[in-house]
Amino acid sequence: MLRVVATAPSEVWSWDITKLAGPQRGTYYHLYVVTGIFSRCAVHFEVHATELGQLAKDFITEAILLNGGIAPHAIHDDRGTSMTSKPVSALLSDLAILKSHSRPKVSSNDNPYSEAQFKTLKYCPAFPGRFGSLQDARAFCRAFFTYYNHEHRHSGIGLHTPYSPYSVHIGTASAIQDKRQAVLNAARAASPHRFSRHPRAPDLPGTAWINKQVTDSDMTRHPPGEAT
Fold first, then answer.
1. How far is CA 211 from the centre of its chain?
2. Is residue 165 reached through a cis peptide bond, with omega within 30 degrees of 0 on the bond before it?
3. Has residue 184 been placed in a domain?
4. pLDDT tens digit string along 164-214?
5. Entry pTM
6. Rg (CA), the chain
7. Which residues pair with 76 in a beta bridge?
């Protein structure tokens, strides 16, 4: 089981494809999304009428171009047919990108970043359940991922947004974090009686893992059955 870790944006990507229901029963569109696990940024998405290895290869190529030509060190996926297809495997090999796959016959917990993103999408109050056309699905996803990258605040990245204006992906989050802490410091100095302890802004991520090895210290902090 390969363990991958990201300590900065664009080091490790997770990608997956999910089905979006079309106008008739049995009709589906396929949403391709690649996500930076450190910043939670949706680097690129596309919606297609089918799922093919060649489409997946072109999708990843476009994601790298849109990321300023910066390719990740590793890409994680869930062993879907497109993910393990010859076009995708050849592309990753040519670019010297490490391939990380979920373990066979396990739950989606091995691909947590992509699955969490899809859950946010499908539990969005505006999510229609079914789309009238491929164009409708593309328009909705375009609006959703604009919101997701620029407005949605993630607890896992210190309640910052993935891309802008309080961005982890493009490196402006630290400056915003300092300003947040300065506001909290000033509030405590002005009214110390209101605070039982010194307030701290939520921490920025230091690392992001897939398949992290559980250590004794992890077990101490999070006993069996306790949510992490």
1. 15
2. yes
3. no
4. 655 777 777 778 788 888 888 999 899 999 988 899 888 877 888 887 765
5. 0.82
6. 20
7. 14, 100
Cα distance between residue 200 and residue 50, in whole Å: 47
**Token digits of residue 66:** 């849109």
Looking at the structure of the chain, the number of domains it has is 1
CATH number of the domain to which 82 belongs = 3.30.420.10
Asked if 167 contacts 160 with a C-beta cutoff of 8 angstroms, the reply is yes
Closest to 79 (Cα-Cα) out of 104, 47, 98:
104
Residue type, 138: R
101-117 pLDDT, tens digit per residue, is 876 555 545 678 999 99
38 Rama sector, left if φ>0, alpha if ψ -120 to 50, beta otherwise: alpha
Residue 142, in any domain of the structure:
yes
Residue 113 in contact with residue 40, Cβ under 8 Å? yes
In a domain, 216, yes or no: no
Cα separation, 69 vs 62, whole angstroms: 9
